[in-house]
Amino acid sequence: MTRVVVVGGGSSGCAAAVAAARAGADVELIERWPFLGGTGAAVLDTFYGFYTPGERARKVVGGIPDEVVEFLAERDAVIERPNTYGAGTGITYDPELLKVAWDALLAEAGVRVLLYSFVVDAGTADGRVTSVRVANKAGLQEIEADVFVDASGDADVLARAGGAFEAIGSLAPVQSLTTTFRLGNVDVARATAVPKEELWSLMREANASGRFSLPREEGSVHITPHDGFMVTNMARLFVEDPTDPVRLSAAEAEGRAQALEYARFLRECVPGYEQSVLINFGGFIGVRETRRIEGAYRLTRSDVLAARRFADEIALCGAPIEEHHAGADTRWEYVADGGVYGVPYRCLVPEQLEGLLVAGRCLSATHDAHASVRSIGQCMATGQAAGTAAAMAAANGGSPRGVDTVALRAALQELGAVL
Asked: What residues contact residue 354 under an 8 Å CB cut-off, 6+ apart?
């Protein structure tokens, strides 16, 4: 049996592993945290990108992502809600149940899961990725495969293998980071009656008073499937290179300090939060952008805004360009006429290396295009595409570059993907 190894157990990696296993490959998934779901389980509680913005919402993500939502719905752990900024309907869920959903789907598909394990190097031969070196409590081990899927979020496998990627911050500063937090004991009816414009005005007043230090004078706080609980996306930190462990360590501490300040602001200044209590911070700081590979095709800002379609597209997206820069606000640009654009398979194929595909936010895209296509819905969609393609490649000599995209698209549609 052909072997596929997926590195990264977040939204893209889990979808890739399930898809590869269902396509007949022997699959192992390597994840550094003690749970599956990645950012979606530790930092966020909402899937964006499933629907286009606007009054006529169009569903553009399907297949394995739908099965995740169905699992959550069966347990009363998911709701749909409008996005604060008009980026389309969000699917808000219980992040603890998301971990269990991925446990179940991967187990059902027969995927072997290796948690608490970090990829520290990659082996190559003749321009082909042949193995990854993994560090965990047992020491170091070499894991070989016919094809690898890099779903690490930071293109770790590609970088360790010597593949080409855009140097972090070389063409545009990377997007800012966010420490999310959850509040309990909220009077949800009163809290949700406060319009976003009023909330932001209160932030500006709080900063002007000198009593608070709020780097971002906007952001959101939203409902959850559980009464009395609200989740925020407010804090903002700028780190030039989020793969720098020293700076990232400092950002974790600063992010928690910012979160406490925003929680104090909500309690003292915003109706409905007077008796609120901090339940938890996100499991780790939310990183939006680091390495982006140089692929066989690079998705561009004009592709996004012009709603461009491609013959080899393996996913769709209608999400706006959402750039969280270092300032106090956020830059938004919307796809023309509420349309959708395609994500070409070539964006998952490294320009040089063989035996490797990428999925999720490290795919080949410019800074602006990435600010749209990084939504979790698209991470899952590119993941199931990469996993399916990896299994096809492994069964036919191990060349992802040579995968028949007509056959790939047909296989994805059988899975339920929207194309």
From this structure: 127, 128, 129, 398, 399, 400, 401
In order along its 419 residues, the chain shows pLDDT tens digits of 799 999 999 999 999 999 999 999 999 999 999 999 999 999 999 999 999 987 788 999 999 999 999 999 999 999 999 876 666 799 999 999 999 999 999 999 999 999 999 999 999 999 999 999 999 999 999 999 999 999 999 999 999 999 999 999 898 899 999 999 999 999 999 999 999 999 999 999 999 999 999 999 998 999 999 999 999 999 999 999 999 999 999 999 999 999 999 999 999 999 999 999 999 999 999 999 999 999 999 999 999 999 999 999 999 999 999 888 877 678 889 998 889 999 999 999 999 899 999 999 999 999 999 999 999 999 999 999 999 999 999 999 889 999 999 999 999 999 999 99
**Which CATH fold would you assign to the domain 3-49+94-169+291-415?**
FAD/NAD(P)-binding domain (3.50.50)
In angstroms, the CA 20 to CA 380 distance is: 13
Alpha-carbon distance 219 to 20, whole Å? 37
Residue closest to 350 by CA, chosen among 165, 209, 137: 165
Length of the chain: 419
Cβ atoms of 358 and 385 closer than 8 Å: no
Q: Which residues pair with 214 in a beta bridge?
A: none
Contacts of 54 (CB under 8 A, 6+ apart): 86, 88, 338
Please report how the helices 196-209 and 245-269 are oriented relative to each other, as an axis angle in degrees rounded to 10. Answer: 100
Helix (H/G/I), strand (E/B), else coil: 185: coil
**CA-wise closest residue to 119 among 285, 367, 356:** 356
d(CA 133, CA 117) in angstroms, rounded, equals 10
Q: Which residues have C-beta within 8 Å of that of residue 125, sequence separation ≥ 6?
A: none
Q: How far apart are CA 8 and CA 149, in angstroms?
A: 9
